[in-house]
Amino acid sequence: MKVAVVILNWNGKSFLEKFLPGVIRHSRDAADIIVADNHSSDDSVSFLKERFPEVKIIINQKNYGFAGGYNEALKHVDADYYVLLNSDVEVTEHWIRPVVELMENNKNVAACQPKIRSYKNRNEFEYAGAAGGFIDKYGYPFCRGRIFTSLETDHHQYDEAIEIFWATGACMFVRAESFRLAGGFDDSFFAHMEEIDLCWRFHRLGYSVMCSPSSVVYHVGGGTLPKNNPRKTYLNFRNNLLMIYKNAERKNLFSILLFRTVFDMVAAIIFLFSSGWKDFKAVVQAHIDFHRKKKHLDCGDHPSQLNRTSELIYPKSILFGYFIFNKKKFPDLRHYSINQK
């Protein structure tokens, strides 16, 4: 059983300098350590060769984004498990073992994530993944420990390993065989939402996705694109629509897209008066490009889609729950408070 930790790097020398020594220290006895450079314009590669000669380097010929970057790099990685790790993640002692053991003991698990805490506020869950990801009926993602921008403090309330809808790309353990069978990430996403799309396809193939809170890592977050960035806004909105169109059941597709169009335009207007014209334009452009791209996508029901998949989708609107009914913590969502214990 072979494990490879693969860090996709793009102009992240400062993160590599800060966090790679810890990855080597806590991983070298359990996994191969590889940095895949996504055509960086800084001196990341020369820095790696000089400071960390024991680390294998894969050099992509251009910046393929997160999705394409990993797809290209993993073609050159021989392992049973890929550990896709952001360069801005601090790992902890024995962080690999509990996740791999869970997956070894459950051959149906295609992907798994550890508990993700904030590097800056270390007792708080981190936005990108927290203690496992879910989506609501309209495709809005949220986590155990994080709904929209409300982050919970970790009081060990989510220390049980459970089945989740999606595992974060910030630290994602993936069974290599399942990754290949699902076709890897969707290159057209470039970055953002690609891990949710992949996990949705895993579910459609009959696999499960889990969170193993026995393993803990600390994520800086926003390392490549800052939170308030029009490009990030565009990718999040466009890719979310693409993901829904590709994976949602056909009978619900029209109502979901209608809802999303209305509320995405509301979000665009809010952006216009809060963060400015660029974010407003990003949302509108995301919808325009979605309608251009959807003509080339397969949509609708899939024979292999299991009832269990719909059980993992929150059957109400997380948007209404959060902003109208003040449901800002995972236990406030009765569906999961009952079914995920």
Write up what this structure looks like:
By secondary structure, this protein is of the alpha/beta class. The chain folds into 2 domains: 3-219, Spore Coat Polysaccharide Biosynthesis Protein SpsA, Chain A, CATH 3.90.550.10; 224-305, no CATH class. The protein is built from 12 helices and 13 strands. It has helices spanning 13-27, 44-51, 65-74, 97-105, 176-182, 194-204, 230-247, 250-274, 277-293, 307-311, 318-323, 334-339; strands spanning 3-9, 32-37, 56-59, 81-85, 89-90, 109-118, 133-135, 141-143, 146-147, 150-151, 162-164, 171-175, 208-219. Strands 1, 2, 3, 4, 5, 6, 11, 12 and 13 form a 9-stranded mixed sheet that branches. It has a two-stranded antiparallel sheet with strand order 7-8. Helix 1 (13-27) links the parallel strand 1 and strand 2. The longest helix has 25 residues, at 250-274.
Secondary structure layout:
Blueprint: E1 3-9, H1 13-27, E2 32-37, H2 44-51, E3 56-59, H3 65-74, E4 81-85, E5 89-90, H4 97-105, E6 109-118, E7 133-135, E8 141-143, E9 146-147, E10 150-151, E11 162-164, E12 171-175, H5 176-182, H6 194-204, E13 208-219, H7 230-247, H8 250-274, H9 277-293, H10 307-311, H11 318-323, H12 334-339
Parallel strand pairs: 1-2, 1-4, 2-3, 6-13
Antiparallel strand pairs: 4-12, 5-13, 6-12, 7-8, 9-10, 11-13
Quick recap:
By secondary structure, the chain is α/β, with parallel strands linked by helices. The chain contains twelve helices and 13 strands. The strands form three sheets. Strands 1, 2, 3, 4, 5, 6, 11, 12 and 13 form a nine-stranded mixed beta sheet that branches. A two-stranded antiparallel ribbon has the order 7-8.
